[in-house]
Amino acid sequence: MKIKRPLINSLIIGLLLLGFSVLVQAQRSFNGMERDSESAAPLLDERRNSNGGNSNVGAVFVGTNHNNTLDASEPANQVAMYRRASDGTLRLLGYFETGGQGSGPSRRFAGDGLGSSHSVQLSQDRRFLFVVNGGSDNISVFRVRKNSLTLVCVVPTGNGSSNQRFPNSVTQHGDLVYVLNAANEGSITGFRLSDRGILTPLANSTRILDANQGCVFDMIGCPPDTLFNPTQISFTPDGRKLVVTIKDGPAAGAPVPNFTMPTGPGRVLVFNVRNNDTPSRRYTQTDLDNDGPFGFSFDGNGNLLIALFIGGENLASGVGSFRINDDGSLTPITRLLQINDQFDLCWLENNGRYAYGANYTSGKISSFRIRRNGRLTLLDSDAGITDDLPCTPEECPEEAGGPNRQGSTPLDLRISPDGKFLYNVLPGSGRVAGWRINDDGSLTKIGEFGGLPRTVYGDMAPEERFGPGGSPAGIEVL
C-alpha cells in the first residue's frame, strides 16, 4: 500500500511541531525549577563558586524582638540577616520587617523578653523562615532569598483569648507548623503550610496546656513572667510527637526577687500527632522537680536533650537527657547533670556528637559529649567565653544607652548544618558570637559581630514587655 507524498509531508510537519512544543514546555518547566531552586537553596550558586577563603556559604538570621508600641521612633519586630563566610565570620546584610511586634524587654530579664527557645525557625527544606511576634500575637513567614528575605504572610496564632496569646516558639515538619502560645494557661495550635509559604489554620488543632501562668506584675495585657512560662515546642525528628517544655520556676522558698510560689513542678508535655495531623486530646506529662526545663534539642537517635536552667546546686545550671517512649513518657538517661559553676543554662543545641549550652547569667558556653546511648558528660563548663563589656558610666554614658550591668547575656544558640560552627545571640552586647567546633568538641572563637539592639537596662526593664529597648531573641543558621 502506497502513502501519498502530501500525507507524508503533513505527518513530518506535525511531528516537528509536536517536538517544538515539548521543548518549549520543558524550557518553561526548567525555568520554573530554576526559580524554585533559587528560593529553596538560596546560597547554592555561591557554594558552587566557592574557592576557599572567605567565600559566602550560608546565612544567619536573628529576631530583633523589637516593639514600638510605646515609642514610634523605634522599629517594630525585624529579622537581622547576616552572610556567613566559609571561615565562620558574619557580615550584616540588612533588616527585614516581620509585620508584627516583638515582646521587647521584660522586667524580669531585660535580655530575654520571650523567655523561650526556637522563636525563629527555618523550614526543613530551608525555603522559609518562621518568626513569632510575641507582642502582636501572630507569626510571620519569609521566603529565603540569596541576600534578603521576602515577607509571605502574617497570621494570628489564636483567637485573641487569654490562653491564645504571646507566641514565643514555633516548629515545622513537612506541611505542618505548630506554634506555642505562652500566656495564661498557654496553648499550642497548628497550621497547614502551602508550597508558597502560606499558613492556613488547622481545624481542631488547638490544645490548652494548663500552664498556670498568672499576671505576675499586674501589667496591661498580662504577659507571662519569663521565670515560669512555657518555653519551646518542637516536633520529634520523625514528626510523630510534639514536645513542649514549661519552666515553672524554682521550688517554693527559693531566694529569688518577686517570687513566692512556682507555677508547677517543671514540666515536659508530649502530644501524639494523630492521622489527621492534630495533637492528641491529652498529653503525657513528666515532672522534673522544679529543675527548670527550658530549651531542648534531639540527638541523632531521637533522644531528648534538655537545658535545666536551675537544676544545679543553689539554682546553678544543669542539663538532662531522656528517651521518649511510645506512650509519651520519658525514661531518664542522664536525669540531671549539674554544672555548679555556671548559672542559667537555658538553651541547649547539639551536632550529634557534642552539645552546647548558653549560660545567660555567667556569660559562657558549656560543652558536653553525647554518648551513643544519649548519656551526657561534661566536657568544659567554660568552653566558650563572651567578650567583657565596658560598664562604667564614663565608658557607657546614658546618652549612648547607659551601662549594662548584666553582661552579654548569652541567649538562643544554633549550629550550622554541617555541624562545624556555633552561633549565639548576645542581647547584652547587641552582637552574635561565633565559634568553630573542633573535632574534639572544643570551641575556637571566631569573633562577635554587631548589628543587634543592645539590652539597655541591665537585667531589669522599666516596662513589662511591649516597651522600647533591645531584647533580640531567636536565631537560625543556614
The CATH topology annotation reads as Methylamine Dehydrogenase, Chain H
Tally the helices: 2
Percent of residues in helices comes to: under 10%
Reading off the top of the CATH hierarchy, the class is best stated as Mainly Beta
Global mean pLDDT: 86
Report the CATH superfamily: YVTN repeat-like/Quinoprotein amine dehydrogenase
Write the CATH architecture name. 7 Propeller
Q: What's the story with the biggest beta sheet?
A: 5 strands, antiparallel
Number of separate structural domains: 1
Stretches with pLDDT under 50, minimum 5 residues:
1-8, 15-53
The fraction of residues in strands falls at 35-45%
In whole angstroms, how far apart are the ends? 67 Å
C-alpha Rg, in Å?
A: 24 Å
Shape: globular
| Count of distinct strands | 29
Oligomeric description of these chains: single chain
Could you characterize what this model shows?
- The chain has 478 residues and is mainly β.
- It has one domain (57-477): 7 Propeller (Methylamine Dehydrogenase, Chain H).
- The protein has 2 helices and 29 strands.
- The chain has helices at 5-40, 44-48; strands at 56-63, 78-85, 90-97, 120-122, 128-133, 138-144, 149-156, 167-173, 176-181, 187-193, 199-201, 207-208, 230-235, 241-246, 267-272, 284-287, 293-298, 304-308, 317-324, 330-339, 345-350, 354-359, 364-370, 376-385, 413-415, 421-426, 431-437, 443-450, 475-477.
- The strands form 7 sheets. Strands 8, 9, 10, 11 and 12 form a 5-stranded antiparallel β-sheet that branches. A 4-stranded antiparallel β-sheet has the order 3-2-1-29. A 4-stranded antiparallel β-sheet has the order 4-5-6-7, with no helix packed on it.
- The longest helix is centred in the N-terminal third of the chain and has 36 residues, at 5-40.
- The termini are far apart.
- Residues 1-8 and 15-53 have low confidence and may be disordered.
